Amino acid sequence: MSSTNEQGLQNKTDTPSGEELSSELLAEFHEANRDNELFASTEDPEFEFDESGLQLASKEAELDLEAELEDLAREQAGEIAFRSGAITPEGLIEDDFEKELGTPSDAEDNDESEFRDVAQYRILEVAGDDTYGRKVIVASACRLPPSSQINHERLMEYLKYTLDQYVENDYVIVYFHYGLTSKNKPKLGWMLQMYRELDRKYKKNLKALYLVHPTNFIKLLLNIFKPFISAKFGRKIMYVDYLHKLKEHLHFDQLVVPSLVLEHDAKILSAQKPSYPYSSDESEAAVHNPKQQFGVKLQQILQNYKCVIPPVVETCVEFLRKNALDVEGIFRRSANASVLKDVQKRFNQGETVDFDEINDVHIPAVTMKTFLRDLQEPILTFDLYQPVVRLHTLEEDRQLIEVQRLFREELPKENYIILKYIIHFLTQVSQYSDSNKMNTVNLAIVFGPNLLWPKGQANLSTIGHLNSFAAYLIDNYTQLFVR
């Protein structure tokens, strides 16, 4: 480490001047420009890249970026930032950068309605969990309005407000880059400010940042920003050239993919001439063995196993009840991917899984969440989605009556029994919240989108209603489950 520290920016005298920093950034910029011919003109000067995503659109993009780099360099020269960070061989700084960046002042608590001016664009969406049980947050560049129509400081506040609801859990971000234009592109200084303000609190539990349809432009930016990006954070960035590649890690059907992005992906796929990978319903086409538990209909499991509670649910719950009620962050943490896949495979083969042999309480926790989300239809059924989302419009005393009616008249008996079993267990988990830090609200954030989701794509506003409903079930268990 000492040799690495010697390469770092140690003190003020090692910090380059504004002119030196500007020259370095611009030199790197022009070198990339020459090598990759990034700034050739295209037929559509509005976009920063052409349909193949390999070229930037116009000379204006070069001039704009060059000017922003000069401004950014002058700004950085006066800040003496990152001078104690050790530089890795890849040009990234080590993970002690947070203390140099400082901690931004805590924003005042804001009700979601206060961000209606930004939320209306649906730039950010929450899309349930990925295949490893981590919350998925989607950001779409094509939904950014022209810079003249949005306050980017407000956008920053809204971004932090949204992330604040999930950063205590493991989570991933999917960024759809297509659609970023010269009209809606934020300034480079704002992008760097965003990275700084999203301090360790936000980066700690971020497990992956998927950059979908990356262009040479965004790769160039990341290269320029290397001095400001930690080595650990840099390893979380993953380039995804085609949407179907996300299916290896995410539930594609729950992703909120803008139509512009879908159309762009279809164009680049047709140019490569593979078959369109998500034009058919794979869940309908798949042939399941009789012992299959993940990715099938609930009724199929109950019929094939002659049971009331699916074996995977009962096995996970009973183990967690005995061994993990007081484990801090239970249901928040992700699990080892290879072990998780092996456990799912064994359950699908009808084997009995002994979690004592695995010696990791997070494996059954994530297995349980994954099972619920992989069902072809949610435990609460598609039919109850709209009634649940509308529930918040009723007065409090009417809500209890309506939920009791839904459970009595519309929720199938077998679904009701399993839901009651799960919610009863979650009430037990919440009773240990002083030690496990999983109170009703935190449990609801984890389980809300796994108990109910729409046939199409959910959006951020409805996710909040699902979370509230899950919390309502836990808080009012004895009054609701009387059937």
UniProtKB/TrEMBL annotation:
Biased composition (Polar residues): 1-16
InterPro entries in UniProt: CRAL-TRIO_dom, CRAL-TRIO_dom_sf, Rho_GTPase_activation_prot, RhoGAP_dom
One term of GO molecular function: GTPase activator activity
PROSITE patterns found in the cross-reference section: CRAL_TRIO, RHOGAP
GO terms under biological process: negative regulation of endocytic recycling; small GTPase-mediated signal transduction
CDD domains with a match to the protein in the record: SEC14 (cd00170)
Biased composition range(s): Basic and acidic residues: 27-37
Domain CRAL-TRIO: 114-269
Renumbered residue ranges of the record's region Disordered: 1-52
GO cellular component: cytoplasm
Residues annotated as domain Rho-GAP: 296-481
SMART domains to which the protein is assigned, alphabetical: RhoGAP, SEC14
Name the record gives this protein: Rho GTPase-activating protein 8
Organism of this sequence: Mytilus galloprovincialis
